[in-house]
Write a structure and sequence with these properties.
single chain, 224 residues, mainly alpha, three-stranded antiparallel beta sheet, 7 helices, 3 strands
Amino acid sequence: MREAMEDRAVYLGLLVSLVALLLLPSLLPDNAFGAAVVRILFSLVLLVAVVTSRRHRRTVWIAIALWIPAVGLRWAPELPGGALPSIVGYVSSLLLIGLVATTLLSSVLTSRRVTQNTLYGAVCVYLLLGVAWALLYSLVELEAPGSFVLQGGLLPRSEEGGAYTESLLYFSLVTLTTLGYGDVTPVTELAQMLAVIEAMTGQLYVAITVAGLVALQVTHSREP
């Protein structure tokens, strides 16, 4: 019971921090203060993500090793090496989110019954997919500027010189949910193919996860 309550608190904390990361940037001023708050939110998401893997010793050490460069390079002042520090930070963040999402998804799909923890975990994985693809798009834009356009113009750039991640996070979420408003558009073949794969992933995730949770609930309800 205690472990279940701890898991619930951690999963709920991850869910709340993810929702805050999605909503608050649009409410913050477009200045140094707003950028600092976004960095704090992203660092918090990654930190809580590490905590979710605390029961798997090997996984948690890998997560910590990825968290250090993911957060450190985001907060570090301008470093030599051009775009390399940004690339390392993006890749570390992407690997960390992928590791945590995989761990959570495994926990959801191997549950014996549907609980609040299962639902929180399923929703967190879905949102983590959106964040992960936003980081992947940022890497593409960093390596090939102009891969995405915003209403016919280039995406705004961040102080670090990389893609403005909030715009790509928005694009990732509307692609994941297949809304596709068309204000942010992938224009290179790689960017377009990644968008197609994300849209397919979002649809498959919802279908497979819902089917799995329904099957778990039906199986549990039939048990004596």
